Each structure stands twice: as C-alpha cells, then as structure tokens.
Amino acid sequence: MANFYKDIPELKFHLDNPMMERICELKERGYRDKEQYDYAPQDYADAMDSYDKVLEITGEITGEIIAANAEGVDQEGPHLSNGRVEYASGTKQNLDAMVKAGLNGMTMPRRFGGLNFPITPYTMCAEIVAAADAGFGNIWSLQDCIETLYEFGNEDQHSRFIPRICAGETMSMDLTEPDAGSDLQSVMLKATFDEANNCWRLNGVKRFITNGDADIHLVLARSEEGTKDGRGLSMFIYDKRDGGVDVRRIENKLGIHGSPTCELVYKNARAELCGNRKFGLIRYVMALMNGARLGIAAQSVGLSQAAYNEAVAYARDRRQFGKAIIEFPAVYDMLSTIKAKLDAGRALLYQTARYVDIYKALEDIARERQLTPEERQEQKKYSKLADAFTPLAKGMNSEYANQNTYDCIQVHGGSGFMLEYACQRIYRDARITSIYEGTTQLQVVAAIRYVTNGSYIATLREFEQMPASAEMQPLLERVRKMSDKFETCTNYVKDADNQEMHDFLARRLYEMAAVCIMSHLIIQDATRAPEMFTESARIYVNYAEAEVEKHNAFIARFTQDQLAGYRK
C-alpha cells in the first residue's frame, strides 16, 4: 500500500535539516520531559526518530484510508440537519483513524495530552494529509488554532480546552462576516458582557467559516460599544457544548467538498474572553492568521505533490503515435516544471516552518523564565524572518498549486476534463488556496514592507555567502544577477516616491523576491542532496530567471504617467 511519507523522500530530507537540532533543544527544554513521560525523547536522535515514526504512521493512514475515501467524500460532502453539520461517511472514518493514532494536539505540551512536536514535523503531516484530500486536511489541520489559545489564553482555559483538542475534538476560527471578508476591522458580531452569569454573549452572523460546526471556536467579535475599527475587537472562545450557535447553511463550493464551509448564526451564545480586550484583531488574529497561512502553504504543497503524481502516472501510461506521451518534449517540459516548482515551494515552506519553530519556542520559554540577551536576539531574528517568509510561502505555493494542477489536467488532455480522473478534483481543490486565509494580493501587502525596507535583499546577500557545490556555482552566479535586478527595481520604485505606483508594482517586486529566495533554497538543497534536487535546481533557476527578467523589463519601462491607462 502507498505511504504518503515514505514514498516522498524529499520530506525526510527536509526533516533532517541541521536547524532541527536547535529546534528540538528549545522545544524539549533540554529533554526534561523524559523523567515524567515514558514516550518523551531522551535526546536529539530519539526526538527525530519519534517525528519520523509519527510521520510514517500519518503517511500510512493517508495512503490506506484518507486517499481511498477522497473521491467518495468529494461526491457525498457534508450534510446539514437541524442546524448541525454531519460529515460525509468517509470523513468520519478519516477522523476516527487520526484520533485513534493519537495525531491530534500534536504541537501541544505533554501535560495536556499532546506530543510536544515542533511546527515543522506537524506541517509535514498537514502536507501529507492534503496530498490525499485537501478538504479533509482543512478539518484535521484546524487543530492548530489551539496554538493561539495556548499562546494567549489563561491557565484555566488551557486545562479545560487543550486536552479536548488533544483527545480529538475539532476547532474553527470564526472571523469573516457577510460585510467583513479581507477587511476584518469591519467585523460587527456583537459581544456583550452578561453580569448576572459572569460571561460574554455573542450575537450576529459569521460567513465562510471552515469547519463551522466544530467543537471549540475562536471568535472575533466587537466588544467595545460605539467602535468601528480594529481597536474595538476582542477574541472569544465559544464551546459548542454551551449551545447558542446554529449553522444556517453549508456553502455549495467549487472544491474542498469534504470541508463544511458554514454560515453561522450566533443567538446570545455564551462565550469567554481569550486574552485581553481590544487585542482581538491587532494581536491575536494576526497570530492566528500566520499559523493558518503556513497551513495553507502546506496544503498547497500537498496539492502540487498530488498533481505531480497524477500527471507522471498518466504520462507514463498514455500512449500516442506509438510511444508514451512522457517522451514528448511538450509533456516532459510541463512535468519537470511542476516538479521544480514543487521542490522550490517545499523548500520555502519548511525554511519558513523552521524559522517559526525557533521564535515560537523562545517565546514559550520566555513565559517560564527571562531570556538571556543572546536568546532575545535569536528570538527577534527568527520572528522577523518568520514574518517575512510566511506571506511568501503562502502566496507563492498557493499560486504554484493552481498552476501545477492546471498543468496536470493539461497532461491528461481530454481525460482530465472527465470526472473519472482525480486530477479534476485536485484542480478544483487547489483554486481556493490563493483566496482563503488572505488572498495572494493580501500576501503582497503583508510582504511588501520587507521589500522596501531591504530585508529580502539582505537575506539574499546572506544566502549568496552560503557554500554551494561546484556544480551549483554557475546557478548561484545567475541568481546573484537576478538579485541585482530585484534590488535595482526596488530602488526605482522607491525613488519614484508615488504610493499608487508603489502599490501597483508591489506584486511584481514580491514575486521577484520570492523566486530569488526559492532559487537559493533549491541550490542549497541540491548542494546537500544532488541526487535528489540537481535537476529541479537547474529547471527552477531557468524558470525564475525568466520571471525576474519579465518583471524587470516591465518595471524598468513603467512610468507614473502609465497608471492612468490601468484605472477603470
């Protein structure tokens, strides 16, 4: 049977990254749990072995159960009955298998029943699951909302809610409303304090809520009467056991059919404050969204892997004009480009995850003791890198998922348009990745300050100093020239001193930064494992070089006067 971890050696490669030793040391606090929990690792080698085994179990469940149920779940979907969601039969089987395997609350401390895993191996599990069924991946991976509750909730909330997630209960984050999508500061769901019962009451409507009938919800609501901006919003915890929230409808979607996307009606629903009032959007949702964006990046990589698998299998089997179509240049060009984007995007995903791991572990340690000056500097460095890389990982991988699944259908030709082939489901599922948890356009907004303040170019110059194999040196020199063009374009836009022009060209600068960074990462991977990544490095740098040249030519010729022609 297929194992979605063991069958993809690139995952093991990224798990074995040298940064993992520092991550494990921080996450395990010097492996102190070994005295209290018999399943806690004794040392670094033991920790890595534990991650490897859990990933193998996840890969086995994914290959034998989740993948086998994917088509049936896509066709059946969830149902709505008396204001409650009932999952598709295959989804229930999937959840049961994951819970029985203990794959919930993976990143939570052991004292709550979690596995105390770093973000990186958990993100790999999310990628693996998404490669089989992206819709189910949404339901299962929303467990990472518990990270926000752990970070900002109090000890009493930790003790009541985290063990339930570790035991297999589900979560959702209820943010968007009919009139508040990307503009979350316009949220109007009303939160009022009930003095008599010493609780908060929520009233209003939430829309497009993934897994909206979950057991535990994190809810963004307006707690400060008379406010209209983000400073009047707070974060709340709603427990489904308390009632007061009904599902008005399940949306009829293009893809991710197994994942119920709900419209929720809050009617005097009992809730409790998470963290401090007025920080809901300013601080807590930002943390929640960054975690979700890393999750969508993982989902996107999983979908790209699925697209590559389907395209290669079909191209090897399908014969035309007396030979397999994989032998035709037009086809193997598409296949090799899918693989190169997949490898480069995955490198960006796990580099980002490792940055997140270090800064989050240090943040957690800071709750127990004062950080040393060196640790504070390390925390600051990796927090900034994580913040800069997350919108690149989410935006670029979601765009690549859309491109790769499109090309997968193209490889299938007419068969790809038929519902009998999995590629059409993968294509439909991929479309949402560049929309939810912040559109690609919003990822550009999040990233552009790191273009203009010089952070990305500084990172690129640091990457240029990293050792590369002799075989990779010519590619490294080409990427250096790509970075020069990116820097020149950035300075040109900054020197124009025109905000509209800056905003108009931001997407192109963002993409230039991203492809230069991914080129460096794939070169580093090819240096460490040439047998695995050399061809992808060559193909991706060719692709990236063309992208940089395209954007460079556009920006170099663009003037402020041309903006008028684009306005409608």
UniProtKB/TrEMBL annotation:
Pfam family, one: Acyl-CoA_dh_N
Gene3D superfamilies attached to this UniProt entry: Acyl-CoA dehydrogenase, C-terminal domain (1.20.120.470), Acyl-CoA dehydrogenase/oxidase, N-terminal domain (1.10.540.10), Butyryl-CoA Dehydrogenase, subunit A, domain 2 (2.40.110.10), Butyryl-CoA Dehydrogenase, subunit A, domain 3 (1.20.140.10)
Keywords carried by this UniProt record: FAD, Flavoprotein, Oxidoreductase
GO molecular function: acyl-CoA dehydrogenase activity; flavin adenine dinucleotide binding
Domain Acyl-CoA dehydrogenase C-terminal, first and last residues per copy: 452-563
InterPro entries registered for this protein in UniProt: Acyl-CoA_dehydrogenase_C, Acyl-CoA_dehydrogenase_C_sf, Acyl-CoA_DH_CS, Acyl-CoA_Oxase/DH_mid-dom, Acyl-CoA_Oxase/DH_mid-dom_sf, AcylCo_DH-like_C, AcylCo_DH/oxidase_C, AcylCoA_DH/ox_N
Positions of the Acyl-CoA dehydrogenase/oxidase N-terminal domain: 92-169
Taxonomic superkingdom: Bacteria
Flavoprotein as UniProt keyword: yes
Domain Acyl-CoA oxidase/dehydrogenase middle: 173-268
Span of domain Acyl-CoA dehydrogenase/oxidase C-terminal: 283-444
Cofactor: FAD
Entry's family note: Belongs to the acyl-CoA dehydrogenase family.
PANTHER family, A to Z: ACYL-COA DEHYDROGENASE, BROAD-SPECIFICITY LINEAR ACYL-COA DEHYDROGENASE FADE5
Full protein name: Acyl-CoA dehydrogenase family protein
Native organism: Candidatus Merdivivens pullistercoris
